[in-house]
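Suppose a classmate hands you a notebook page containing two proteins, each written out with its sequence and a corresponding row of structure tokens. How would you begin to make sense of it? This section walks through that situation. The first entry is reproduced here exactly as it would appear on such a page.
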Amino acid sequence: MPQVQDTISIVGYSLLDSYSASNNAFLVAKMRPFEDRKAASDSVRASITQLFSAAQQIRTAIIFPFNLPPVIGLSTSGGFEFQLENLEGADPASMASVVQGLLAAANQDPRLARVFSTYTANAPSLNLDIDREKAQSLGLNVSDVFTTLQATLGGFFINNFNLFGRTWQVNLQGEAEKQAG
């Protein structure tokens, strides 16, 4: 997008629900100066619309482009938060269907705009029951078990080093083809 001057991305964190996970990220775009964006198609609103349209084509991701609020700390539109609870033990696909129905109904209400949810039934998850006593009896530190899991299933920060006048970050991460099986 030529109207964007620069971007910064934070991988592993969701700005929308303040949740950290390896399949979350947010990106902030810095627009070019106003004098370089004179056309209506280069406005922030037009850029958000263009990005929203392009993002709809990516079926494996949920992308919500939005503008920052005019006053930091206030919402972009005076929004609200709603939490849907699964009290009957329905499976994730059933919950996704309920969420989609709720969103469809909410987005038909003229008083609401761009109602969305961060819930997805497609995000893989694991529930691990670590036998801490057995790990310790095998001479393993429980914290080392969790660090290994983090590095294998997501990523783990090791340290920084300087080279060529720059600071480089060292991260440990399992290979994708090893994680799938």
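The notebook's second entry, a different protein, reads as follows.
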Amino acid sequence: MSTPTSSDHLLRIVSPGDLQPLKILADPGNGAAGVAMDQLLPHLPLQVERMRWEPDGTFPHGVPNPILEESRAMTEARMRAVKFDFGVAWDGDYDRCFFLDENGAFIEGYYIVGLLVQALLTENPNQTVIYDPRLTWNTLDIVSRLGGRAVVCKSGHAFIKEKMRAEDAS
């Protein structure tokens, strides 16, 4: 019996057969996400243009933090130059990702959080959702509308994980 991989885990969450073929621009900003994505992409119906794919701890194109306008400028320009369905860019250690629409416009995080909360609560009503105080209005609206319980937490994955355990959140 083979040992399950992280790709196996992710493919149980989202079935590749449920995805439509899309043309995307993927930019790990010379961080670590490209290595992980190389394991996942062969299983997905995506046509991916790789940008700044190879990990390089010197970060020759600048800080890999797409929340900063200057860090995502190259990605936005490439999105506008070529027709993609959407773009995704990760921070250096890929614990955060950011999306761009088909026109290269940055999609603010509170919209993505809203989509994730909606998916979680549609499948598992009455769940507790831990949220970052920077992403308030949309999160509270969706959690309230779908019958969940919203609990605010300090920003940062360490604080959020601790609060999730304390509140028995999904």
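A careful reader of the second entry would note: Residues 140 and 150 are 7 Å apart (CA to CA).
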